[in-house]
Amino acid sequence: MAKIQILPENIRNKISAGEVVERPVSVVKELLENSIDANANKIIIEIKSSGNEFIRITDNGEGMDRKDALLAIRPFSTSKIKKEEDLNHIRTLGFRGEALSSIASVSKMEIRTKPEEGEGTFLRIEGGEVKEVSPWEGERGTSVMVFDLFYNVPVRKKFLKTPLTEGRLILEFAQRISLAYPEISFKYIQDGKNKFLTSGNGKVEDVILEIFGEEFIDNLIPIENEKGDYKIRGYISIPYKFLFTRPQDVVFLNRRIIKNLSVTQAIKEGYSQRLKENFYPFVIINLFVPYDEVDVNVHPTKREVKFHKDREIIDFISTSIKSALDEYEQERRKKLFPKIKENKREINTLKLPLLESSSTYLEKSSYRFPTFLEFNILGQIFDKYLLIEYKDKLLIIDQHAAHERIRYEKLKNKKEKKLIQANEIIFPLIIEVSKEEKRILEEKRDLLEDFSFHLEDFGPENIRITGIPNEFINLDNFSLENLFKEIIQELASKNLKNLEEEILRTLACHGAIRSGDILTDEEIFALIKTIVDEKIPLTCPHGRPIIWELSKEEIDKKFQR
Ligand SMILES: Nc1ncnc2c1ncn2[C@@H]1O[C@H](COP(=O)(O)OP(=O)(O)OP(=O)(O)O)[C@@H](O)[C@H]1O
Ligand SMILES: [Mg+2]
Q: Of residues 391 and 353, which shows the higher confidence score?
C-alpha cells in the first residue's frame, strides 16, 4: 500500500521553501534524516572524496515498495504530513517532501529499497529523470547513493569550499547526529576507511567516548532537569576546560540539530562568570519542548527554529546549566577539602585579616594550625600560588583569583542587602576628568551612590571623592584613583550589558591580594577556610580557575614510578 502522497498546493505554499541542497553535507543531512524517520537502528554513511565522488547512506529502516519509491523522488511527495494542521506539530525530521527530489535533480542517484513485505526495487535516476527501474534482492531497508553532485549545475560547484572543508563539515554533521541518536548504531566510512562506529546502545557517554575520546568525557558534567513540559539532558564542559572562541554547542531540540542564537546565549548565561569573557564552553544538550511550541518550518534547511515562548525556554536552559555547575562544584569542593570538624572555639580565635582588608598582613609567625585540619600548607611559590597538600593531592591555588572571588561574593551579598557602608575620607581625593566623563558620572551618580561612593563637583574638570565603600579604606590614594578611573571607563563604555556586575568585579579585583603579596600561613589558612566555608565558585569572577589539582598518581607518572 502506498504511503506517500503528493502534497496539495495549499500546503506546499505554507512550507518554507528555498535551496535544500547547498553542499555535500546537505545531502548527507537529508538522507540521514530520512533513515532516522524510517525508524532505522543501523545506518552506514560512506563518503568518497569529500562527497564529490559519491555519498551513500544505507539503513535498515522500513524501506519502500516500488510505487512509493517512484513517488518519493517527485517534488512535494511525503508520507509525513497529510493535512495543513499537521504542520503545527511536526514530529518527524522531514515534512516537506522536497529532499529526495531536490537531490535527484542535481546528481546521479541510485536507490535500493525493500519494505518488510514484498519485493525490493532498484532505481537509477539522472538529473531527476528515472533511467532504470528493476527488481532488487536485499534486506529490508534503503540505500541511497548519490554520485557526481552538481554535475549538471556547475555554478553551484563553484560555491563549494575546499574538499577538506566540505569533508570536515560532513564528518562533523555525522558526529552530531550520532550524539543525538545514541540508540542508533552509526558507522562512518571515509575513502574506504572506518572513521567511527557507535554501538547504538542508547548511552550518549559511549558515543562521546567513541567520537571525542576519554579526555573529553572526563571533563564533562552530566546535566538533567525537568520543568513542566520542558526537559533538558546532556553533558556540559567543566568551566575552565575546553574553552573555545566560538560557540561549540551541539544542541538538539526534540532530537533535531538546531542553531539558535538565544539558546547559545542561554548557555553562556548559565555559565555566567564561570567563563572568561569571549569564551564558550563545549556542551551537548538535548532539549525537549512540546511540539506545538516550536516552529521548525521557518528555514529551508530547517536549521533554524522559532520558539513560541522564547523567554521561558531560555531561562529554563540557563538555570539548568547553572544548577548543574553549582552541584558539580559543591561535589568537587567536598572532594578537594577535608570536612572541617566543628570546633568553634578554635576557629573563632582565628583572626582572618584577609576578609576585611589585604593590607594588614601579619608578620610571618610561628602560627600552628589546629590539628583537626587535615591539609598541610606547604607554602607559597612565585609569590602568587599557594601549595597545599591534601591526602594524595597537591593543590595549587591562585591567591589573587581566589581572594578576588571571595571578595566578589562578599561584596555582591552586601550590595544585595544594601549593606555596603560608606566611609568618609579625611582628605578627599580630587580626580581630573573630561567634560564627557563628568557628564557620565553625573548621569550614573545614583549607581555610584548605591556602591557608597560619594562625589562632589569640583570645578569644570575635576571631581572630588568624599566617601568610599568601607572595603577600600586601606587603599592608598594612588590605588584609589586607579580604581576610580577604571570605574569611569566602565561607566563610559556603551556595550557593557550589566554595569553593576562589571563594577562589582572591578571592586573585587582592586582590593584583592595581588600576585607578589607575601602571605603568612595564617592568612593562607583563612583563605582556604573561606573557600570551603562560604562555598564560593571555583573560578574567579572573570572565569579563571582558582584551583588546580595534581594527583599523586600524576606526579608519580611524571617520574615514571
Ligand atoms: N530511507 C528511507 N526509508 C524509507 N522511506 C524513505 C526513505 N527516504 C525517503 N523515504 C520516503 O520518501 C519520502 C520523501 O522523502 P523526502 O526526504 O523527499 O521528503 P520528506 O522526508 O517527507 O520531507 P523533507 O523534504 O522535509 O525531507 C518520505 O516522506 C518517505 O516516505
Ligand atoms: Mg526527508
A: 391
**364-390, pLDDT tens digit by residue?**
333 334 434 567 788 889 889 999 887
Ligand 1 pocket member 100 (CB < 6 A) = yes
SS3 524: helix
Phi and psi at 525, nearest 5°, equal -60, -45
Integer angstrom CA distances of residue 226 from 102, 288, 345, 549? 39, 9, 44, 33
- The cell 504530513 sits on which residue? 81
Strands (E), 393-533: 393-398, 422-432, 454-457, 462-469
Bridge partners, residue 424, by sequence: 467
Ligand nearest to the CA of 98: 1
Grouping H, G, I as helix, E, B as strand and the rest as coil, residue 120 is strand
Are 171 and 188 in contact, with CB atoms under 8 Å apart?
yes
| CATH number of the 5-197 domain | 3.30.565.10
Q: Among 281, 140, 172, 145, which Cα is nearest to 223's?
A: 281
**Ligand 1 atom index nearest CA of 144:** 1
Asked if residue 34 has its Cβ within 6 Å of ligand 1, the reply is yes
Ligand approaching nearest to the C-alpha of 103:
1
Q: Among 12, 32, 34, which residue has the most ligand 1 atoms within 8 Å of its CB, making it the best to mutate?
A: 34
Q: 515 near 403, Cβ under 8 Å?
A: no
d(CA 219, CA 332): 13
- With a 6 Å cutoff on the Cβ, whether 95 touches ligand 1 is yes
- If one compares 520 and 227, the residue with the highest pLDDT of the two is 227
262: helix, strand or coil? helix
116 pLDDT exceeds 80? Answer: yes
Average pLDDT for residues 155-176, to the nearest whole number? 90
What is the average pLDDT across 321-344? 74
Q: Is 528 in the pocket of ligand 1 (CB under 6 A)?
A: no
Q: For 470-497, what is each residue's pLDDT tens digit?
A: 878 777 778 888 888 888 888 887 665 6
Per DSSP, the three-state class of 309 is: coil
Q: Is the pLDDT of residue 361 over 50?
A: no
Q: Where in the chain is the domain with CATH 3.30.565.10?
A: 5-197
Q: Pick one of 3.40.47.10, 3.30.1540.20, 3.40.50.1820, 1.20.120.330 as the CATH number of 342-561.
A: 3.30.1540.20
Indicate the pairing of strand 422-432 with strand 193-197: unpaired
- What stretches of 137-258 adopt beta strand conformation (E)? 141-147, 185-190, 193-197, 220-227, 230-237, 248-253, 256-258
Sign of the torsion formed by the C-alpha atoms of 273, 278, 283 and 289: positive
Render 385-398 in DSSP notation, one character per residue.
EEEEEETTEEEEEE
Give domain 219-335's CATH architecture: 2-Layer Sandwich (3.30)
Find all residues with CB under 8 Å of 535, minimum gap 6, and list them: 330, 333
Q: How much is the mean pLDDT over the chain?
A: 84
Ligand 1 neighbour 79 (Cβ under 6 A): yes
* C-alpha cell read off for 460: 569644570
CATH 3.30.1540.20 residue spans of the chain: 342-561
